[in-house]
Structures are given as C-alpha cells and as structure tokens.
Amino acid sequence: MEQIALAIVGCGGMGHRHLEGLAELHRAGLSPFRLVGVCDPVADNAGSLAATAERHFGRRPATVAGLEELVSLGVEAVDVTTSTVGHHTVVAGALEQGWHVMVEKPLGVSVAACRAIRQCADRSGLVVSVAENYRRDPMNRLARALIDAGAIGAPRFFLHNSFGGGDVMFITVWRHRKEQGGLLVDAGVHDTDMMEYLCGPVTEVYAQARLHEPERANPAAAAGGGAVNPAGVYGRWQRHMPERFAVDAEDAVYATLRFANGAAGQYVSDHAARGLRQWRRALYGSAGAVELPPDRLGHPFMLDRDGERHGGSDLLAWVPEYRLDEVTARLFGGELLASYEWEFPAVDRKLIAVEYAELGRAVAGGAPVEVDVEQGMRAVAVSYAMLESAACGKPVTVEDVMSGAVRAYQEPIDNAAGLRGV
User: Fold this and answer.
1) Beta strand 278-285 with 289-292: parallel, antiparallel or unpaired?
2) Which residues contact 72 (CB under 8 A, 6 or more apart)?
3) Distance (Å, rounded) from C-alpha 240 to C-alpha 227?
C-alpha cells in the first residue's frame, strides 16, 4: 500500500515528541506514513526536527515556514503540534487544503475555538483526530474493560485528586498564561477525558479556582538548575525562558461533578501545592471499587470488592474476552498486560505511535477515530465548565458551556484569539 504523505506542523517540544512516536511506529514496521515536510515559522525548530527525522528515517523532510508551502509536497495529512492558541487556525487551514488532521490536545484554546474546528471538520468530511494519549495507556484500557464487564457494578462516585508543583514552571511559560488556555485546561483535558472515558459524560460542575502562585520559577534558566523536562525534549527551550515570570492563569481547581449516569464526582487539581504531594484516581460502584495507577507508568492496580482485593494478572480473569489492539500489543509486548516496565520517554512515544497508527487506518480505510472533534471538544468544555463555575459562583452545565451560553471566563481568551462571536 502506498504510504500517506505526512507533515508535522509545529516543531517545538511537542513536535519533537510526536516525531519520536512516528519513529517508534516506523521501527516496529507499522507506519503507514512518509514524512515529507515539517513546518514552523522558527527556522531553528524546523531544522532540528528535520535533522532528527533524517536520523530516524534516513531521509530529510522539507522544512517550511507556513502551511501554504506544504502544498507542493503532495501532503495528504498533517499532525498539528503548535501551541494551543493556534490550533483552530492551523486546523482550518489544513482542512481547506483537503488534508486529514491529527491535532494535539487541547483541541482548541477555548470552547469557541473547538466550535470553529467542528464547523470546518463538518464541512470537509475529512478525518480530524485529537491526540489524547492517556486513555490509550494499557492500564487505562484494562480499567475500562473491568468497568464495562461490571466488576465494580454501577458507577457511583469518581475521584481524582492531585497535589504538587509549588511555584515551579510547568514545562513552558505559555502554559501559565490565561490567554493561551492556562495550565488547568492544557493539563486538565487529560483528566476530563479520562473522567468521561471511565465514567461517561459529565453534565454539571460546581467549582472554585485559585491562582496560588502569581510568580513561577524556571529552574532550567538558573545557574546549575535542571530542566522540568518530560520526555527529555524541552530542556533546550527552557534554558532560554525567563528564570522567574509573572502568572495570570489559575493553578488550582476544586470541583464537584455530576455524571449523566447518576454518579457523583470530586476533582482536585492543585498545581501549586507545597509539602505533601498526592495523586489518586478511583471509581467506586455498587459492587466494588477500582483504584488506578498514575498514567503512563505501567504500575499494577487494584480491584476491591467488599475487602476482597484483586490485583496484577488476577484482574485478567474478570475480563476473559479482553485484548489490547494489535498495534498497542506489538509496541508494549503483549495483548494481555496487567503492568509494564518502560521508562517514561519510551511510554510517551509508544502511545503517540498508537495515535499515529489509528490516524493511518482512518485515512486509508475510513475507520472512525476514537477521540474525534466532539469528544475533544467535550474535554475542553468540562475543563472550562469548572473555571466558568468558579467565575460565576454557581453550578454550570457542560451543555451550556458547549453551546456558548456560558462563556464569561473565556470571553477575553476568545477576544485575544480572534474568536469574538464564534
């Protein structure tokens, strides 16, 4: 089968991570893509990505500064890994050219940005996939299979609490800027997608939000400081960011949730907590509970049914029909996994490889993608519903945030992004 001509648009840290995922798929002999171009207005970024691609694939893709320069390369699909504030314009431009799209999460910088993408996607009839990787973790796949099999009964209560971070920069300066979506959306959409993956649609939230740390530190810019560097790719940029900088996006949210199936939930995401660090995700049901490990670490987890605890490979007996998909099984070393042992950079690129494989199937054969525009938009809407609720001091429905009926918190973000009235 002829390979799909692909370009990566956005050659910063996330673009480099995605390239490693594409290389992982290539090494496994599973890649349907031929990387023909990389696109970034910053020539050094594009050049770095092209050089890395040449080492992986034995050929150097073209480097260009703008989408229009990709036309002559015969591009059929693009992977959008720009900063979030540009997603809606880049995705729209790609769809107008007739290119299929995979776009990093969050789908858009606001719900209005997601609506703009949805309008373009609906008109185009092309594939648009949101690169949401947490749900693709084999441990989360197993958890979902257990829930679907009735191992905990009917869901009653979803819990997700995380504390840590202090005043340290979270990867980049822009993640602490409200007009660029802010930390609680950029990181939070992983959590909100997992809520809905495991427990179904969220319908209503009531939340408080805080900006605890109005100034953040960047250790990589300090003399002798180390980078906060997931996947090992961000340090080269962090060294050139300010050593300290002002913050205007909230860094903590405390919320109660209502799910469509009647379950309740509690969500705390405090990226400014000092002292005791904590991470916990659990789902309680009418017959038991499952407590999950942190994403992308491969730790075994536990099913508890009235004090009877089942863990590790014993969990597989509860789901006799369960198997990982072929690509995930090949990359992680088996179709029945109750744990795995890989370092984070390897896990990161394997999960991105799974996303690429799905995009390839969708482009080649019309298969649906798992995280489509609607689900990607929902993850953004649930995250913003918390911030909208905190701003107005009362519960808000996800439906009202999705429709734009509630958007006061997002209004300055929309205005800055040219989304007034969308």
Assistant:
1) antiparallel
2) none
3) 11
Q: How does 72-92 read in b/e, with b if 16+ C-beta sit within 10 Å?
A: ebebbbbbbbbbbbbbbbbbb
What gap in Å lies between CA 61 and CA 103, rounded to an integer? 20
Residue 228 tokens read as 């906060």
* Distance set, CA 82 to CA 42, 227, 242 (Å): 11, 21, 21
Angstrom distance (rounded) from CA 73 to CA 193: 35
Question: Where does residue 343 rank: exposed (0-12), middle (13-18), buried (19+ CB within 10 A)?
Answer: exposed
Q: Which of 394, 372, 421 is nearest to 103 (CA)?
A: 372
- Name the nearest CA neighbour of 121 among 147, 145, 150, 99: 99
Going from the first residue of the chain to its last (422 residues), give the mean pLDDT of each consecutive group of 10, the final group possibly shorter. Answer: 93 97 98 98 98 98 97 98 97 98 98 98 97 98 98 98 96 96 97 98 98 96 76 88 97 98 98 97 98 96 94 95 97 97 97 98 94 98 98 98 98 94 78
Q: Distance (Å, rounded) from C-alpha 222 to C-alpha 176? A: 19
Q: Give the residue from 26, 213, 141, 136 showing the smallest Cα distance to 369.
A: 136
Rg of the chain over all Cα atoms, to the nearest angstrom: 21
Which tokens go with 166? 């202090």
